[in-house]
Amino acid sequence: MPRIEFARPRIVDGLWLPMVTPLHHGQVDFDGVQRLAAHYADAGVDGLIVLGTTGEGGLLTDVERLQVAAATLEAVQCAVPVIAGVGGVATHAVSEQVRRLERLDLAGYLVPPPYYLRVSDEGIAWHMRSVASHTARPLMLYNVPKRTGCAISPDLTWRLAAHPQIVALKECDAAGMRALAGQDRIDVFCGDDAAMLDHLLRGGAGIVPASAHIRPDLFVRLIQLARTGREEAARALFRQLSPLIGLLFDEPNPAPVKAALALCGLARPEVRRPLMPASKSLVARLDAAIALLPPVVAREAA
Length: 302
Hints:
By secondary structure, the protein is an alpha/beta fold. It has helices at residues 30-43, 62-76, 91-101, 121-132, 145-148, 154-160, 174-180, 196-201, 216-227, 231-247, 255-263, 280-291, and strands at residues 14-18, 23-24, 27-28, 47-50, 82-85, 108-111, 139-143, 166-171, 187-190, 206-207.
C-alpha cells in the first residue's frame, strides 16, 4: 500500500499586522476592533495577529480574548487569515487559552516561550510541543527575549521545525534572523520593525510590524518593492518610514501606536493599566512624523 503524505500546514508569507485592541473607558471597544480589522484587510495586509503584545493580550480576560478574536474574524469575513497570540508563564494555562480559542476559525497561534521563568531549551521545547498537542493548527514561534527572559536559539529553532505543526518563527533578534536566513525548514518573519527591510531583501518569509498600523499602504508597497528586486526604491521608501518607526517604539508598545492611530482618527489612544498613554511630547513628534509621510500609493496588481 502506498504511503499517504499529509500536507504540512502553512502560515502565508507577507505582511502580518499585530493588531491593537481598541479600548473605551477601560472596556474593549468591539466596534472599534471590527472597524480596524476591516480597514487593514482592505489595505492589503496578508494577515492579522490578535491578542499579542501590541494587542495587550496579557491584560485581557479570557472572555475578552475570545470575544476579540471572534469579532476580528467576523469583521474580515475570511478576506485575510487571523492568528491569535497565546502566552503566559504556565504551560497548562497557555494550553487552556488554545482550547478556548479552538472553536474559532483561526489560521494558527503565535506562541512565545513561558515568561519570567528563564527556562532551558528543553523546557521551551516541551512547552511548544505541549501547546501544539492541543490543536491541529500551525504554530508560529515568537522569539522575543527582552520580554520573556529566555531565547529560542537558531539551534533550538531547527529542532522545533521538525514538528509538523511548528512552521514559522517571529524573530525579534537580528542575529537570529541572519543565522536563519536562506533556509527552507521554517518560515521566518521579522518582529523587529527596524530590521524588516534587510530581512525582506534576504528573502525572509515576511514581517510582523506594529508600525504598519500607520499608513499600511506604504508597508504593502515596501514588500512589493523588495520582492520584485527594486532594492534602491525599497531603501528610499524605508528611509521615509524610519523616523516614524523609531518614534513608535520610543515609549512602551502599544501606547505610541494607539496615540498615532488617534492622530489619524482610527482609534482612541487608551491603553489598559499598568500601561500608560504616550506622553504629550511624543504625541507631538508623532504628529509631525506622520505629516511627512509620502502620499498614498496605489496597490500593484498581483
